[in-house]
Structures are given as structure tokens and as C-alpha cells.
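Q: Convert this sequence to C-alpha cells.
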Amino acid sequence: MKFADVLKGLEDIVERLERGDLSLDETLSEYEKGIKLYKQCVTMLEHAEKKIQMLIKDENGNFLTKDFESAD
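A:
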């Protein structure tokens, strides 16, 4: 599943919850679904972050890859 689809599902749940017209059971069910989607989004973002690398040149002109976080 794509990140955009998961995020859209989460947004839809938030919208339903904000309307305030759900029963308590429906609200709890939607909340649980929202938490699962939220965790899925976080996991997907963490995986994407690990893949982000910067292409840099060393002093000899060779291209290297370096983790985004450590590329200061």
C-alpha cells in the first residue's frame, strides 16, 4: 500500500471522528483503525528516511553516498 493511500485513510478517519456523530463503539473502532494507520505511516516514513542518502564528492572527485542524517 502506498503512503498516500494510508495517509488518506487516516485523514478520512479523523474527519469521521471530528464530525462527532458516531456511537461510542464506532468511535472506538475508528480510533483503533486510526492508530494502526498512524503506526503504518510512521513505519513507512522511517523506512524512507533510512533510504535517503546524499550523493557527495570526495577530495579526489569520486562520488560517495552518505546517510542523510550525518551529512553536515
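The radius of gyration is 20 Å.
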